[in-house]
Design a protein that fits this description.
InterPro entries: Bact_solute-bd_prot1 (IPR050490), SBP (IPR006059). With 484 residues, the chain is α+β, with helices and mostly antiparallel strands. 39% of the residues lie in helices and 14% in strands.
């Protein structure tokens, strides 16, 4: 698996912008969407027959597209999307944009596609590229991508995850490397030493023990224990221990997480449970764990950093100096701080007509790389400041950080004191590793069952649990795969 720590370190130079932002510079219309050239002067019939037909003017094509719309709790993101729809319709008044309330779910996508109920443009995450492409549930947008004049400025770290066999099946929005967000205030209030950023599993354990107060319902750390998030959280420790999810060799995919590294990572989870540093009610999904963190009921949470930061600052009433973003801890001193590299993407529905697919693509990249995108972002920052709230960018954005547009974004951020800035030291330590190529969500689900066994029972045979999960994933999923 490729490592990107060097690339990720470069990201420090530029704080990032929300995924809804960005676009073209021609009043938000890409060259391909510009009106057709004026009719040429009259010519002979022979000359006319040799002329290529005029390009279709997509500002005149009547169509309806349904788009991914953020959930009700994402008020600021909804405001950005509403602004984007308004600006899009100024250029494409012929297109009706319908807001879809469906959020991607790997257990529902097949049903949605079979019933032709999936949106024209829907959200998904980094693990799903190959799955959606192979199932025929993501449109091949290679031709649209190749015609996009800003394609070379898109961030390859994200774009590569939806480049399947040289074809493009998704549009990157934003990305992350999983880290650990620490409530520094909880530590200092209890007189607990703040660990170094270059920390280890032992540092996590010692810090969690020192700050936990089970009698008051306060945990030291809240690893997720419900839903696929539980397997996702644990995978960071598998990676830090030097393990892999799967291997691909000789056309065969083989489960590899039931290794010595996997056992070591699971033993650490077992020790967290034995030390009573995790919540008594450990069955927490992403929202539960991040919510507990924002409410001061746990001192540490494992996630893409922007989510816990946003909730802690804007819902929990915490200040930037109260929070520290850490990389994932190294298994031992001198080890790498490897975290899962993931991201958010938009996918075009292959059941849509060619015109609808084209317009969905135009909508997806509408604000990308545009001055209007910068204006929209700045307006969002200003609105948050007026409400005494913070703007928290994601760790990785859709554009290259060393691009001209990246510099423009950085200049906007530097104007405001309510934009959260990631530290130099953090960015230098981050080591992102992509999720598995095949059936990642199925693997996460299998590991969630193992983690629930560990958290709910005593004297669990950890190796037997890992072996059983690997056997299930192998026989049910990996054995069905033929790699060409």
């Amino acid at each position: 698996m490729r490592k990107i720590s060097t690339i990720i370190a470069c990201l420090l130079l530029f704080s990032l912008v929300l995924a809804a932002c960005g676009g073209n510079n021609n009043n938000n219309a890409s060259p391909s969407a510009s009106p057709s050239a004026s009719t040429p002067a009259e010519s002979s019939p022979a000359a006319e027959s040799s002329e290529a037909p005029p390009a279709e003017d997509f500002t005149q094509v009547k169509a309806t597209i349904s788009i991914y719309y953020p959930t009700p709790d994402q008020v600021e993101k909804r405001a950005l999307e509403d602004d984007k729809i308004k600006r899009f319709n100024e250029v494409y008044p012929n297109v009706e944009v319908v807001k879809s309330d469906w959020q991607y779910n790997p257990n529902e996508i097949g049903i949605k596609m079979g019933a032709n109920e999936a949106p024209t443009l829907f959200n998904t995450y980094a693990t799903e590229g190959k799955f959606l492409a192979e199932k025929g549930w993501a449109a091949d947008i290679t031709e649209l991508f190749n015609a996009y004049d800003k394609k070379d400025q898109l961030n390859p770290i994200l774009l590569d995850q939806f480049n399947i066999g040289g074809k493009i099946f998704g549009i990157p929005q934003q990305g992350y490397v999983v880290g650990t967000v620490v409530n520094k205030k909880m530590l200092t209030d209890k007189g607990v030493a703040v660990p170094p950023l270059d920390w280890t599993w032992d540092d996590v354990m010692n810090t969690a023990k020192a700050v936990a107060d089970p009698g008051k319902g306060i945990s030291g750390i809240a690893p997720m224990g419900k839903g696929n998030e539980a397997g996702w959280n644990w995978t960071n420790f598998l990676f830090e221990a030097g393990g892999e999810i799967q291997t691909v060799e000789g056309g065969k995919v083989t489960a590899a997480f039931n290794s010595e590294a996997g056992l070591k990572a699971l033993e650490f989870y077992s020790k967290l449970k034995e030390a009573s540093v995790i919540p008594a009610d450990w069955a927490l999904g992403w929202g539960d764990a991040v919510g507990a963190f924002a409410q001061g009921r746990t001192a540490m949470v494992i996630a893409g950093p922007d989510g816990p930061l946003d909730q802690g600052l804007n819902q929990g009433g915490l200040k930037p100096e109260d929070l520290i973003v850490y990389p994932m801890p190294a298994a031992a001193a001198g080890g790498k701080h490897t975290g899962v590299l993931g991201g958010d993407f938009l996918v075009v529905n292959p059941n849509a007509t060619p015109d609808e697919q084209r317009l969905a693509f135009e909508y997806a990249v509408f604000h990308y790389f545009s001055d209007k995108g910068l204006e929209s972002t700045e307006a969002n920052i200003q609105a948050r400041k007026a409400e005494n709230k913070f703007f928290v960018p994601p760790v990785i954005q859709y554009f290259k950080q060393d691009s001209e547009y990246g510099a423009k974004v950085k200049a906007v951020y530097d104007k405001y004191d309510n934009v959260y800035q990631y530290s130099n030291e953090l960015m230098a330590l981050l080591d992102g590793k992509p999720e598995a190529q095949f059936n990642t969500q199925d693997y996460y689900a299998a590991m969630t069952n193992v983690i629930q066994e560990v958290f709910s029972k005593k004297d669990v045979d950890l190796k037997a649990q890992l072996d059983a999960a690997a056997k299930t994933v192998q026989e049910k999923f990996y054995d069905q795969i033929k790699v060409e």
